[in-house]
Amino acid sequence: MKITTASGIPVADNQNSLTAGPRGPVLLQDFHLIEKLQHFNRERIPERVVHAKGSGAYGTFTVTHDISQYTKAKLFAAVGKQTETFVRFSTVGGEKGSADTERDPRGFALRFYTEEGNWDLVGNNTPMFFIKDGIKFPDFIHTQKRDPQTNLKSPTMMFDFWSKTPESLHQVTMLFSDRGTPDGYRFMDGFGSHTFSLINAAGERVYVKWHLKTQQGIKNLSAADATRLAGEDPDYAQRDLFGAIAAGDFPRWAVKLQVATEAELAAWEARTGWNPFDLTKVWPHKDFPLIPVGVLELNRNPVNYHAEVEQAALSPSNVVPGMGYSPDKMLQARLFAYHDAQLYRVGTNHQHLPVNAPRCPFHNQQRDGAMAGANGSASVNYDPVQSNGSNPHGMGHGEPPLALDGAAGRYDGRGKEDDYTQAGDLFRLMPADAQHKLFNNIAGPLSQVSAEIIARQLAHFDQADAAYGAGVRAALKARGVNVA
């Protein structure tokens, strides 16, 4: 194929710059050279602050069970109905060139291209998180990144934050179990993590949590294997996912949800003391059983990684009619932060890119800006004021009003909330060998921090379960750390 400039002009010579004589100097009029170097200097867009290293694939979601009693969303309208999807998996704390096998939560961001617009379920491979309020998210992520002086990852920063943040213990316990190093992306579960809501045709709201259960089975890496693969094949998860799909071995997940009415959640909170909208907590399956919904299958690899994966821009604010949010403080922060990040990272009109554009017709009155591909043409770019509103028969997506209560203020429930029971429950679910691995996985980085931080963190383990604290103490002592 004949090489051209970006404007389609044939290039006479792609091997030699235009020079004054055989030895130069180079002439500024060599536009092909200048365009090549200019574009090369701009080939990278800013990497994501979190979830920078990732892999993506397309697939289909197929409805297997009727949930129309909970939602009017059209993608669930009939058993057997299929919706095109895109998934981006990722690590969280590492840079774009980091290893796929680092101990880290994994992002599990799922887009449904529905006939009513894009629904983005932007979750992780864990059902809980380290913090419960988005105002602490930048602080937390700073501890997972590099020390501003040494430019090195810092166990001191991590455990200083965690030891002063008891609400993190539930997720810390999950992170330092073998689930913190999954064997690629195909062998792990996914979770929406937050509490969301569904609205049915009668305008009734229920609250839900989304689960994606791998049909390949859970497989994790030992700490030693994860470290070995980080050196031998830092792109291990990317290679595994792409290769499996290319070979026709399509990974699948069973999509399920937990459902509760507002009254049921209020009764559960009264009994347990746990806020159902707290992201550091889970809804136990014995209280809220999993309900099957459908199957997600990934069956097509991207053709262009940069265009389809690097520039993919998902946001939990993207919900379709029949869906809604919840009072989850972390979710409320993410509703703003994700879209804002995409505006900065990809651009004002990032929704015009094929991977981000809805598959259904769309019309808005946004105009112009960089990369304005679908710019509205001759259609009007304004909507006049109407006394009854533009949608007098419903609010927003048709969501019923949400009753709010209380004076506006900054409320701190920490110190009065139970941050230990669910972490202890998770610990007690682990068999003895998994507990032993947990102790050693924690003791490795914890042994590198000050005695003061160690003492604070051990106190949290003790409150979750006495055996938890004792096991970590023994693992620290085996590393020569003197602990009480």
UniProtKB/TrEMBL annotation:
It is an enzyme of class 1 (oxidoreductase). Keywords: Heme, Hydrogen peroxide, Iron, Metal-binding, Oxidoreductase, Peroxidase. It catalyses: 2 H2O2 = O2 + 2 H2O. One of its GO terms (biological process) is response to hydrogen peroxide. The keyword Transferase does not apply. Residues 386-417 are annotated as: Disordered. Its EC number is 1.11.1.6. SUPFAM superfamilies: Heme-dependent catalase-like. Decomposes hydrogen peroxide into water and oxygen; serves to protect cells from the toxic effects of hydrogen peroxide. InterPro entries: Catalase, Catalase_3, Catalase_AS, Catalase_clade1/3, Catalase_core, Catalase_haem_BS, Catalase_immune_responsive, Catalase_sf. Heme binds at residue 338. CDD domains: catalase_clade_3 (cd08156). This is Catalase. Belongs to the catalase family. Homodimer. Its cofactor is heme.
